[in-house]
Amino acid sequence: MFQHLPPLQTLRALEAAARHRSFTRAADELNLTHSAVSHHMRSLEQQLGTALFRRVGARMIPTSVGARLAERVRIGMSELDEAIAEARAGTAPGASPVTVRLEVSVMTDLAAQWLIPRLDRFSEKHPGIDLMLRIHADIAAPDPYSVDVGIWHQRVEATGFVTRKLLDDYVIAVCHPDLIARVPGFTVADTDKLPMLRFAHRSWRDWQVAAGLPPHEPTRGPIFDDSGLLLRAAIAGQGVATTRSLLVRDALAAGELVQIGDARIPPSLEYHVNWRENHPRERAIHAFWQWMQDEIAATAPLAPPRIRSGNDNAPPAQTSTQA
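The line above is the sequence of LysR family transcriptional regulator; the predicted structure tokens follow.
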């Protein structure tokens, strides 16, 4: 039996190298040398009679055969790891219940402003699931095989993946409540009298048009490439910012920010949750997905904006009770 299996260390090196796209990083993870990982891969390629990696610049990219094999190895090793953990828990006196670890790649802004503040609630509801967060800042999605769950701006179109849109969101304008005190009788029309924080990936013009203001792009003031830092600047009272509504629901509810007007525009990118079909930890993934849906439904809805267009007789803005 198992006459085709190479040494376990070789399979571990293959999985790590394919996941990291680097022999060096795989060696660091496994406490091996770079040459040892290279030797494992050469030996495996000779045994299989086919190439498993190709060099692209400084990266080692798996071939189609290498990627498929690494994925099968990853699934098999995950199942073995859980089986050993279950056996240990079933035989060791006083052993703790088996814990499943999910590796979740998540966009930086969503992690910082929404997910991380709620992790204690997830742990309380699912004590048998540990989340390992891998923060992702690039617009382009990483290798979908590198983690268990990916919460990215892109859908994974590859065969064998499940993709769900996280929510329908929209962009609003916000600022610290103390900032508007600088302009007596402040209305939306006075927005450009305040410092306007600029985001490298979003123009002010769309919001201004939606708010009934003359469209113009601010020509001065700080420019942020990271939306999380943009929000930190807004909460610190440094200026007005446009942001996704989900990311500031908590800050609005806490009074750290106020919404300016009721104008809202669709974001240029959505959040999509991606995972592999028939994943060995599929039950844990579905539990995490359902928990996110429950949390979104429970996230405080936007209250009618405190700062309106200047027409005090206008009816309150209609806001949705779902994010």
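Note on the example: The first helix runs from residue 8 to 20. The radius of gyration is 25 Å.
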